[in-house]
């Protein structure tokens, strides 16, 4: 029994997600469908790519990850199927799949051009239902090569890398979670930053002195701190509050860190 995951920006108030699930089960009822999330901010490809990267590895080998954040739907952008070392990824060729797929190790990428793995009537605005859902359902029922021709020039999104110049680390905000915790592009082990240290984070001309702690409860409620989170990122947080809101930080913003 294969697992198929769904990750979209469709929300849960419309018919979109249910339609995709209906298509999948109509083709292959012997699958388990898991929702990663449908609350990705509209059109935010990079956030969806990060969420997929953060979750794909925790599913059984052979799982199919369908990610549909697709502002280019109906245009000349390709639909692709990716085979990596342990998983399959299906979605638009706009980078949403590749942060995760490249992390696992891409073996083969094919354009989804075989009309036999799509619905008979393909709309120009809902490829999640008409192309990606059926393509996912057919995995294991047909050979991977039958999806379409090989693709070598697929769009890639990569994790930003921090750089250090003259003792100052220039980093980027790669993710903000629902609590307002800010994930920076600094990973554990990249620089000599350890628990018990203090760092200064320069945010939009404002210097913030933070202790590096193991978790939120090591500081008083309302106090800001830094920590290495469950994904290994240097995170900026406020115990019981939102660092993002307090300091006006969003994904893509650049910050400086001084040890």
TrEMBL record:
It comes from the Archaea. Residues 4-139 form the S-adenosyl-l-methionine hydroxide adenosyltransferase N-terminal domain. Residues 172-255 form the S-adenosyl-l-methionine hydroxide adenosyltransferase C-terminal domain. Keywords: S-adenosyl-L-methionine. Pfam families: SAM_HAT_C, SAM_HAT_N. InterPro entries: SAM_HAT_C (IPR046470), SAM_HAT_N (IPR046469), SAM_OH_AdoTrfase (IPR002747), SAM_OH_AdoTrfase_C_sf (IPR023227), SAM_OH_AdoTrfase_N_sf (IPR023228). Belongs to the SAM hydrolase / SAM-dependent halogenase family. PANTHER family: CHLORINASE MJ1651. This is Uncharacterized protein.
